[in-house]
Amino acid sequence: MTQDTSVADTATAPKIGFVSLGCPKALTDSELILTQLRAEGYETSKTFQGADLVIVNTCGFIDDAVKESLDTIGEALADNGKVIVTGCLGARAGEGGGNLVKEVHPKVLAVTGPHATQEVMDAVHLHVPKPHDPFVDLVPPTGIKLTPKHYAYLKISEGCNHRCSFCIIPSMRGDLVSRPIGDVLGEARRLFEAGVKELLVISQDTSAYGVDVKYRTGFWDGKPVRTRMLELVQALGAMAAEHGAWVRLHYVYPYPHVDEIVPLMAEGLILPYLDVPFQHAHPDVLKRMKRPASGERNLERIQRWREICPEIVIRSTFIAGFPGETEAEFETLLDFMREAQIDRAGCFAYSPVEGATANDLPGAVPDAVREERRARFMAVAEAVSTAKLEQRVGATMQVLVDAAPAMGRKGGTGRSYADAPEIDGTVRLLPPEKASRTLKVGEFTRARIVGTQGHDLIGQPI
Ligand code: SF4
C-alpha cells in the first residue's frame, strides 16, 4: 500500500520524495521521518524528478511486498538517482550474505532497518544538507558545544546500574540508559564533519554501554551494529581515521571485555589511553565501596594490557581514607600504585557526600589521617608519573595544538595521546625553529620532546 505523503513544494527548501510501503507500523515510521523532515525545514516532492533525494520506506513481509519495494527503489534510482532505503526490507540479508537491498541496488546511498528515524535523518543530512535558517534555528547543526572547536565530548549513556557506596549519581540520574548506537554514531559524524579532531567518549560507565538494552542491534549507515562498547569503538575509530582525528575513552571499568578494546589501541584505531577509575586496590575496601569489577585482578589485567599495547597510558582516580581503611589496606594501595605504574593518577581524601550510604559505614578515618594519606599517595603517584614523563625525552610525538598565539611563532600548548584536556598535563611547544613554520589551534604537529616541567612535557615542533 502506498501512502500519499506529498505536500506543497516551495522554491528554496530542499525537497525530499517519499514513498511509504507496508503495514501501519511502517506508516508510523514514515510519519516520524516526515515530521522530522518538516521540523528541519525540508519540503516533500510529489515526483521523483522534482526531488533532491528520495526515501523509500520498504516492506519485506511477503514476496510480493519485497518485489514491490525493490521495484520502487529501482524506479526511484532511474528517475532521481539519490535514494535512501529504510524499513523492514532494509534489515534483510541477501543471498550473498550482505544486505539484500545493497545487493540488488548497489547505488542506493544508505540503507537502514525499521524504526530508524535518526539514521535516516543522518543519511539525509549527509546527502542534502539541512536548510539552516538563522532566524528559526536556535542551535548550530552540531548543537551547542562548550568545548573549543577542535575537541568534543560524546556522551553515550546516562545514569548508572552500580551503587557505589560513596556516590549519589544513580539516585539523581537513575539506572543506565544507553543512547541508540545510530544516534551516537550520527552525532560523532556531525562532530568530525564540523572539524572536531579529538572525540572524548564519556558516560558514567563506558564499558557497560548497551547492557540495559541487552546489546540490541541498531542501524548505522545501512548496516546492523550492536549497541556494545566494542562495536561502538570500532565504528568510531573507523570514522575518526577518515577525518584524521583521535578517539579517547573515559570511565572504563576493568571488566574482562575491555581486553577486546586494547588491541584496537595497538592497531592505532583509537588512542592508547584508558581512563579507569580504580578508586582503591585493596579488595576489602573495594567491597565496602561496592565498586564494579571489584573482584577483578586489576594488576594482572593492566600487565596484560601493557603486553598487548606497550604504549598504553592509564589514568585513574583514587580515594584515600575511605571509612574503615586501615594503614595496611592503604599500604596495599601504595604498592598497587608502584606496581601498576599508573601514568596519571588523582587522589581525593574521602569526603562524605550527603545521601551516600558510605556515611553509615563504621570506622570513619579522622580528617587529618585522610589528608595525610592523600599526600602520601600523591607523592608516590608523582614519582611514577615524573619517571614516565622523563622516559619520553628524545621521542617524537604527535601533538594536537590547543593554543598558539601569534600563529605559534612564540610557541604554544598542545597535548599528546597521553593527555586528556583539562585533567592531564600538556605539551608546552617551543617556537618552531624555522621562521616560516606556524602552529594552528586544532591542527596536529609533530614535536621532539626535549624536556619535562612538572606534569608537562616540553616539545620542539618539527
Ligand atoms: S561511582 Fe559507581 S555508582 Fe557512581 S556513577 Fe560511578 S560506577 Fe556508578
Features:
462 residues, alpha/beta, Rossmann fold, pyruvate-formate lyase- activating enzyme, OB fold (Dihydrolipoamide Acetyltransferase, E2P), 3 domains, five-stranded parallel beta sheet, globular, disordered N terminus, binds iron/sulfur cluster, Methylthiotransferase_N, metal-binding, protein methylthiotransferase activity
How would you describe this protein?
It is a single chain. The chain is α/β, with parallel strands linked by helices. It folds into three domains: 15-127, Rossmann fold (3-Layer(aba) Sandwich); 151-391, pyruvate-formate lyase- activating enzyme (Alpha-Beta Horseshoe), CATH 3.80.30; 395-461, Nucleic acid-binding proteins (OB fold (Dihydrolipoamide Acetyltransferase, E2P)), CATH 2.40.50. It has helices at residues 24-39, 63-79, 100-104, 117-127, 169-173, 181-193, 229-242, 262-266, 283-289, 298-308, 327-340, 367-391, and strands at 15-20, 43-45, 53-58, 83-87, 110-111, 151-155, 157-158, 177-178, 198-202, 217-220, 223-226, 246-249, 273-275, 313-320, 344-349, 396-403, 412-415, 427-429, 444-453, 456-461. It has a five-stranded parallel sheet, sandwiched between helices. Strands 16-17-18-20-19 form a five-stranded mixed beta barrel. The longest helix has 25 residues, at 367-391. The chain is globular. The N and C termini lie far apart (64 Å). The chain binds iron/sulfur cluster. The site of iron/sulfur cluster has 10 residues, from helix 5. Iron/sulfur cluster binds next to helix 5.
